[in-house]
Design goal:
The protein is 26% helix and 27% strand. The chain has 336 residues and is α/β, with parallel strands linked by helices. The chain starts with 6 loop residues before the first strand and ends in an 8-residue tail after the last helix.
Length: 336
């Protein structure tokens, strides 16, 4: 999605908000149909959102406005110049100018907006008089990744250090991060949003939100998980879809939720859903057990036994990236 000076990546839409531009990770004109103010709020958080431009300027100034929505946590804009991280600029609350030093020669610049804790809006970037600037857009395969706070990566401080960002940067993929903390409840609205987007690869976290607070019974969970995956498959018949189950959470593995399901039960159930759809003919649906991505031996890389820190995200990227790349290699990318 291209404005006059920059290309937006990792967004579904960008809307005007006075002097600011607001990125959205779900369709803003349809969010009422989600029936979840919490999901709508998360859709306005700029997780995985990047601005791309090419310029010969010695610096670029990006006006930023941040409205915190959770407890205060450090937030940053990560700056990549010709594919290399050159700056990590802290941002606070309210309006401020993020000033980025650049080489002064024609360079490809990518700005990763803060991924957690605030709704971030941006103004029009500016460069010194005489410098040129134009939008830059990656041409890599499109990857949509859906999930909870584990996919949004709330503990990792820097936006380009999350496991989805690490995988996308390693492989040159264009990522749309649909990680919504405490909101990954297999919403039909989200399934339809994924179905409507161009994609070469899709990953779906069938994770601990399906267990925490007991949103589903043993009767309801399987059918809803299957319906979510089949909605995506109907719109993307040839795109590899990689589902992954909950990682190990040692303290809660065998603790029943309000509907009597343990985390171990939920993992087995959603893995069975994938196996059933595979037996019914979906040979481009893949399963990765969350226990393989992040197991009992990795708990030291979390803050609470469940949520990984930056080192934990790096480990997940190291383990999950090759599995995703192998799935993508089975199908020629779809360009649109």
């Amino acid at each position: 999605m291209t404005d006059d000076l920059v290309n937006w990546d990792g967004v579904v839409a960008v809307s005007d908000a006075g002097q600011w531009r607001q990125p959205w990770r779900l369709p803003p004109d349809r969010l009422a149909a989600a029936f979840s103010p919490e999901l709508a709020e998360h859709a306005a958080v700029a997780t995985g959102v990047r601005l791309g431009l090419v310029t010969d300027a010695a610096e670029v100034t990006l006006p930023v406005h941040s409205t915190p929505i959770w407890q205060p946590r450090p937030r940053f804009v990560d700056v990549f110049v010709d594919g290399r991280l050159t700056q990590r600029v802290p941002v606070g609350s309210g309006a401020e100018d993020v000033v980025v030093a650049l080489p002064g020669t024609r360079s490809r610049v990518e700005l990763w907006l803060p991924h957690r804790g605030a709704v971030t809006r941006v103004g029009a970037p500016s460069v010194p008089a005489g410098a040129t600037v134009e939008p830059w857009e990656s041409d890599g395969p499109r990857w949509i990744t859906y999930g909870s706070s584990l996919t949004q990566c709330l503990i990792t401080e820097a936006p380009s250090d999350t496991w989805p960002a690490r995988i996308a940067r390693t492989h040159g993929w264009r990522m749309l991060n649909l990680g919504f903390a405490a909101q990954a409840y297999l919403d039909p609205f989200v399934a339809r949003a994924i179905a409507a987007r161009p994609a070469d690869l899709i990953s779906v976290e069938l994770g601990p939100n399906l267990y925490i607070r007991g949103p589903f019974t043993a009767r309801s969970l399987g059918g809803l998980a299957a319906g979510f995956l089949e909605t995506i498959r109907a719109a993307h018949p040839d795109v590899p879809v990689v589902a992954f189950s909950p990682p190990v959470w040692v303290q809660r593995e065998n603790e029943p939720n309000p509907h009597g399901l343990t985390l171990r039960d939920v993992r087995a159930l959603v893995e069975d859903v994938v196996a059933v759809l595979q037996r019914l003919g979906d040979d481009n649906l893949h399963l990765v057990s969350g226990a393989e991505l992040f197991g009992a031996g990795d708990a030291a890389l979390t803050v609470d036994g469940l949520h990984p820190d930056a080192a934990g995200d790096a480990l997940i990227a190291e383990r999950f990236g090759p599995r995703l790349a192998a799935a993508l290699a089975t199908t020629a990318p779809v360009r649109s």
